[in-house]
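can u pls check wat happens w/ S-adenosyl-L-homocysteine
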Amino acid sequence: MATPSTLLPPTPPAPDRRPALLGLPLERLAAALAPVVDRPFRARQVHDALHRRAVSGFEEMTDLPKELRERLAREFRVGGPEVVRRAPSEDGTVKYLLSFADGATVEAVDIPDGERRTLCISSQAGCGLACKFCVTGYWGPGRNLAPGEIVGQVLAIRRDRGLPASGFNLVFMGMGEPLLNLEALEASLAVLTETLSPRRITVSTAGVVPGIDAMARWPRRPNLAVSLHAPDDERRSELMPINRSYPLAELLAALERYPLERGRKVTIEYLLVRDFNDEEADADALARRLGGLRVKVNLIPVNPDPVLGPAMVPPPDERVAAFRARLERRGLVATVRRRRGDDVSAACGQLRAFGRDPKGFRAGLHRPAPAGPAGP
Ligand code: SAH
């Protein structure tokens, strides 16, 4: 006979109150460890293990005495995600489904490109901005990630792919709006820039003006990219509800006062949607609005997805080329973003954390992660 306890849902596990170490730069790590470790140089050892060797747990810190490892494991947690699934694309891109202790999931992507490599990470486990062209927005908001959870995505990919601590680019272009998780973003950058130059890091925003102004005050700024996507408020608001809070004039004014180092530019991301914003007249209007700003334009032919409906289709290649040529003729630097990993829904705007989307599994799009690390 069923007892009442078998009929009730299981009690959720008690939240893990041990502080996470991944969100702490060396100095703060040393302060946190001070009451626990026997020698001052232990902090450097732990920091190297976490951020240079990218170990996943204290048991792997074999240069520490066993007793200390056990003590650390009782008092702290590492705080990074677990790789739940790995979806390798035909083109070498690998999408990761990562999960945190409370069950929140995000996706992050490794994008090798010849000698170059870009890691794309998430700042929130979902997104509340509801941009019409973005699958993450379609699935709705999720919680902010903690600094260690942001840093941990980079470490999880590095561990899986055997990558060193530098020599790649890092973009905050995965799930979420980084400038709506500003404090954690800044804290994660303090750790990430211990090993990676801020010039290698790009934060992409949908146009959160107070966040841009806050970034302007940071002493070590990463590159800034802004999702613009339309040359006028009417069409921008249609694509991006956030434009009603921060319309184009305010957004462009924030870019005008944004401090840039010599030779640096803000990246303007412009999504190209067939028969919506892809006319040469739109290129002219865009160039006019951007006149006088230190920017370069990255054109992104929209990546379609079944949940986005039939309007979200990219223009034909010739039209993309014509749009680009038109911008260049008006003196703007413009590039076209190549689509990567779309066969496994790893391309821009296709991240949904596929644990949340059972349809993806049934369609057989995502192969389960093989056991053990894979080579690059
Ligand atoms: N919230 C931030 C970062 C996440 S989106 C932002 O809005 O910038 C990262 C980039 O992917 C943005 O430029 C976004 O506009 C783009 N993107 C979103 N959906 C897309 C889609 N379906 N096809 C192509 N690019 C898309």
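The chain has a mean pLDDT of 92.
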